[in-house]
């Protein structure tokens, strides 16, 4: 079933022609990629298809009940972190708790009997809170989100600001 058809689409910005006679067909279950050098008109084409930008010539045919959205590649997120680091940053409070637990563990290893009981109570409370807030599974959740977004096996060293 055809879910999108673009015929003879053209777009110019002033005297600069960006798109000329573009033809595109997308059927259900198709997976497509729009690839080209910077300035080739990829984002312009997507904005036109999503109804965010006008065009001079051509037709866009899609079912009336089809909902389309467009997420701008310049979303304002200019992070120097990698994608995984950015996703993990949501759980900074858990990392802080984990670090605090490690510190208490070190203190317990060297504490005398008087101090040990107090440290164990603090550690027990902190460990329970850590568990209740997902401390033992947050890294698996991040991997699951990356996989769900199509970033499974993605190069972990690529920074968010370098993604397009």
UniProtKB/TrEMBL annotation:
A Pfam family: ABC_tran
Keyword set includes Nucleotide-binding: yes
InterPro entries: ABC_transporter-like_ATP-bd, ABCF_ATPase, P-loop_NTPase
UniProt keyword annotation of Nucleotide-binding present: yes
Domain ABC transporter: 19-112
GO MF, any single term: ATP binding
Entry keywords, A to Z: ATP-binding, Nucleotide-binding
Domain of life: Bacteria
Record protein name field: ATP-binding cassette domain-containing protein
Native species: Bacillus paralicheniformis
